[in-house]
Write a sequence for this structure.
């Protein structure tokens, strides 16, 4: 497929290539992953995949991200996981967030009150 691009865009692409700043997506073989959220290697673990497939076949639910659990619905499987996490950590309740960023947003936008001081380190 041939694309017709404006000359200004072609110049910008050429400049990026000259500066070694042009990026393109590629498929890579599995290597040690120090660059993503998969630092435990679970995304490439065949036992993890088999366990997840078996679990999903037993637990009827939607697949994929459906948005906020508050707005689009909650799942018994997630509630069960939260209960297990709470029991493991000997806590009264557990709450799963989809990312560390969202956990921080959820916590820091709801728990501290006006005038509170929150201290945290670089690893939060």
């Amino acid at each position: 497929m041939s694309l017709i691009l404006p000359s200004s865009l072609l110049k910008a692409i050429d400049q990026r290539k000259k500066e070694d700043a042009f990026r393109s997506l590629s498929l890579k073989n599995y290597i040690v992953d120090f660059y993503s959220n998969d630092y435990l290697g679970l995304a490439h673990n065949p036992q993890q995949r088999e366990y997840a497939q078996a679990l999903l076949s037993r637990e009827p639910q939607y697949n994929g991200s459906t948005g906020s659990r508050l707005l689009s619905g909650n799942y018994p499987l997630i509630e069960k996981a939260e209960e297990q996490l709470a029991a493991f950590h000997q806590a009264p309740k557990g709450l799963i967030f989809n990312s560390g960023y969202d956990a921080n947003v959820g916590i820091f936008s709801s728990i501290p009150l006006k005038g509170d001081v929150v201290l945290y380190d670089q690893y939060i």
Observations:
- The chain has a mean pLDDT of 84.
